[in-house]
Amino acid sequence: MRRPRALVLLSALALISVSCGSVPFLSGGGTTRRVLVDYKHDEFSASFLNYFPRTVRARPGDTIEFRQQWTGEPHTVTMGTLVDTLGKPYWEFLRDHRAGENVDVRNPPEAPGFKQLPTMLEVDDFERIVQAAAQPCYRDTWVPDVRDIDEPCPKREQPKFTGRQAYYSSGFIPNEGEEPGVFTVPLSDDILPGTYNYYCNYHGPTMSGAIEVVDDGEPVDDQIAINRKARTEAGVLVRDLAGVLERQRSGQDIAPLPVVGGYPEDRPLFTAFLNEYVPSTVDAKVGEPVTWSFYGGHTLSFNVPKFFPVFEVRDDGFVSFNAQAWKAIGWPERPEQTNPPTAVHIDAGEWDGSGGLRSTSWDFGGPYGKTFDTFSLTFTKPGDYPFACLLHPAMVGKVVVSE
């Protein structure tokens, strides 16, 4: 998710078609329609904070299967009457934006009631997972209270979605278990026609979609048509990210090389980003510092263990977050962000490759007024030094140090 040419885009679109399946399949009395959560591109590594397609039409009794494409980003599928009503200003804004209406993307509307809903990661404490958001939750009625959202929802078997439940959420969709990366939403036979919004309670409402329930006699897309819509929507993001990657590799990007991550910096509502180090192989000399520019949301980590779970689900359902994934280990922390943010430079000094895991935090970012946080490291011994991002498993590289 390596070459931004027409072949890359065609390859991406073909992969989506295969991933989505080619025909509808039956589940109970209705048809199952598959929606992708995120997307894995085969030519470069990236995360796509989207559902493909964003909108799917279905009939009462059908099933919507959400199938996650694991890129390292945690996702949920969260819906219900609270989501529809509290988020209404934002849903209308997003629909206008996606329909090409002239909206101010830098100033989205306020939806203060939406903030009552739990988010998987506590905003002010990244080590605290909010269990009401991270675990499956099916509530017929609910008045969210910030004093109790850390408590998991009452345990119950997943019911069919009637459109009348207050809160209906997959919680964190793990990439392991009996059906890794899959969450199904069976629609009840008596669900009323209408639009039912859903979103990821980790990434927020910009990662959102909708199920449009229609009467039995109205037309709906089969899986082939759904795949075409998914191809079109994903293809736009693939093409734009491929352009960013090409500019980076040709040295035309605003960030000096080597660079960590990437996205179109002038697109505030762009919902995908590169999980790439450019270049992936960095040539260095003993005693000369190497400086990386960060787009943010990644780590630069050496001596990474073979297995490094970021999110873990215990047998009792409790979801925990491995603090090693985002904290600096062995190197200085990035200072807290200022308001407005300003770029910082961290010089980690000299390193001979020893001492186990060494990692930056994921707090590095950019651009701040077209400048970037930077991180420098000076190697004292020749050799190959593999590195990776602890958050995005396909994001790898190495430093080749010579005398």
Question: How is this structure best summarized?
Answer:
The chain is an alpha+beta fold and about 400 residues long. Helices cover about 15% and strands about 30% of the residues.
List the helices and strands and how they pair.
Layout lengths: L5 H15 L4 E3 L2 E8 L8 E3 L2 E2 L2 E4 L4 E6 L9 E2 L1 H6 L1 H11 L32 H4 L2 E3 L27 E3 L12 E5 L7 E7 L3 E10 L9 H27 L9 E4 L9 E7 L2 E5 L3 E6 L6 E2 L8 E3 L5 E3 L23 E7 L6 E2 L13 E7 L3 E6 L7 E7 L1
Parallel strand pairs: 2-6, 5-12, 13-16, 15-24, 20-22
Antiparallel strand pairs: 1-2, 2-4, 3-14, 6-10, 7-9, 7-11, 8-9, 11-12, 13-14, 16-22, 17-21, 17-23, 18-19, 23-24
Structural features, described:
The chain has 403 residues and is of the alpha+beta class. The protein has two domains: 6-236, Immunoglobulin-like; 280-402, Immunoglobulin-like (Sandwich), CATH 2.60.40. The chain is 16% helix and 29% strand. The protein has five helices and 24 strands. The chain has helices spanning 6-20, 81-86, 88-98, 131-134, 223-249; strands at 25-27, 30-37, 46-48, 51-52, 55-58, 63-68, 78-79, 137-139, 167-169, 182-186, 194-200, 204-213, 259-262, 272-278, 281-285, 289-294, 301-302, 311-313, 319-321, 345-351, 358-359, 373-379, 383-388, 396-402. The strands form five sheets. A six-stranded mixed sheet has the order 3-14-13-16-22-20, with helices on one face. The protein has a six-stranded mixed sheet with strand order 5-12-11-7-9-8. A hairpin with a 2-residue loop joins β1 (25-27) and β2. α1 runs antiparallel to α5 (223-249). The two termini are 34 Å apart.
